[in-house]
Specification:
Layout lengths: L24 H10 L7 H5 L6 H9 L3 H11 L3 H7 L6 H4 L12 H14 L16 E5 L3 H12 L3 E6 L7 H4 L8 H12 L4 E4 L9 H7 L2 E4 L19 E3 H10 L10 E5 L3 H12 L4 E5 L11 H9 L3 E3 L4 E6 L5 E6 L4 E3 L2 E4 L7 H4 L27 E3 L2 H4 L4 H18 L16
Parallel strand pairs: 1-2, 1-4, 2-3, 4-13, 5-12, 6-7, 6-12, 7-8
Antiparallel strand pairs: 9-10, 10-11
The structure holds flavin-adenine dinucleotide (FAD) and iron/sulfur cluster (SF4).
Amino acid sequence: MTRSSAPGGERLELRLADHKPLYSEAQARVEAERCLYCHDAPCTVACPTGIDVATFIRKIATGNVRGSARTILTANLMGYSCARVCPVEVLCAGACVYNHLGREPIQIGRLQRYAVETVMDRGGVPSLLPRKPANGRKVACVGAGPASLSCAGYLALEGFACVLYEKRALPGGLNATGVAPYKMHVEGALREVDLIRDLGVTIRSGVEIGREVTGEDLLRDNDGVFLGIGLGSDTRLGAPGEDGPGVAGAVAWIERMKTDSGFTLGEGRRAVVIGGGNTAIDAARELAHLGIREVTMLYRRTAEVMRGYAHEMAQARMEGVRLEERAVVRGFERDGQGRLRGVLLEDGRRLECDLALVAIGQASLREVARQFPGVEVDAEGCIVADPVTGRTGHPRVYAGGDARNGGKEVVNAAQEGKRAARAIAVQCGVSITRGSAIEAGHP
Ligand SMILES: Cc1cc2nc3c(=O)[nH]c(=O)nc-3n(C[C@H](O)[C@H](O)[C@H](O)COP(=O)(O)OP(=O)(O)OC[C@H]3O[C@@H](n4cnc5c(N)ncnc54)[C@H](O)[C@@H]3O)c2cc1C
Ligand code: SF4
């Protein structure tokens, strides 16, 4: 079976080390033993996939690491990446009862990573979850990000033949191309792709739906189609001087920093990042970690109303990132050779910089949805689908993840992919046994 491999060479992301490295067995056991195994565990309620946190932690404490990984992956097949990239501070760990006792919450993400990664290192995941015999049904998933990987993985366990079509050379979606390198490198995202592949899922990279293969082809050849296409390219600011060297969309820049071995930082010493969401904070922190001397975030409102998480912004400040509030960019200043020299603000200020990243959102991929008759896109560009089943206006087409929710977290994409998998199985008349993985976790 073909494995995924990361681009070779000196990718910039490899300069950024893991902020929360894998626990040793002793560290994991000590942390697991602190857990109070709460009966109505608020950590589980706070997890969008409903992982039984107390149970998986108890299993670590008793040395049953395989059992622990089984509990996690049964509820969430993307448990490996979620352990590394989830904003646990506002989800499970944020809900841990220890917060009310004035003590450090349990390091749920790190324990989850310990359990899943340990079993992956031993090659034991495929035998962890029972797989039913082939049921003769076929499903195509568009995109190979967390939503599609989750959907296809659960369907494969139920005996479906699933093919994921990914337009990029690298599968993994934003887990491979977007998440901050100090949380996970491309290699980590690809390990998880291989985990899904090992469940029997086929991944066809470099195939764009709407180009090489059409929506009509997929509908003709499959019992169901899942759209996990995520979002499109960075939204432009539309300000004078934006086109040209030194100005880039933040998501596009992050992708090159993570995946392009020929990509360098250039001469840049002063950078600005325009925006106040998590992508803006990530980009600013990454620039600071890569050694850019002055990194300034420009946000048009005040810090209190920023969309980015407060804990991430606090971390960014500690790493030397400056935040300019009420800073509205009206243009980019260039010299005679077209080189970026600074940004101009509406209040008349001018900020010198040689790199500017625009992080004000991502466009939607409306044209992919148009490939499927009956599938609609709302005014915000989100695919219209039932919030529980993910079913769109076409009876055999489902959608989930960023393309449906407008851009949330990996764990939301994983849960929406799983819910759609359940709905597809039901629609295909495949009987789901009680206690099977596709049924576990939050409904
Ligand atoms: C910079 C950045 C950092 C982030 N950091 C975090 C984080 O730390 N933690 C967290 O939980 N979340 C994070 N997120 C959000 C998270 O990455 C997304 O919510 C999640 O990846 C959504 O999964 P998805 O499968 O819906 O879409 P994606 O991950 O975007 O995957 C969609 C895939 O579909 C493919 N595709 C699109 N159109 C086609 C087509 N026509 N044919 C074939 N393939 C197609 C795309 O190439 C892509 O690979 C971050 C997002 C960004 C932008
Ligand atoms: S809330 Fe905290 S202490 Fe209670 S079960 Fe969850 S992780 Fe353990």
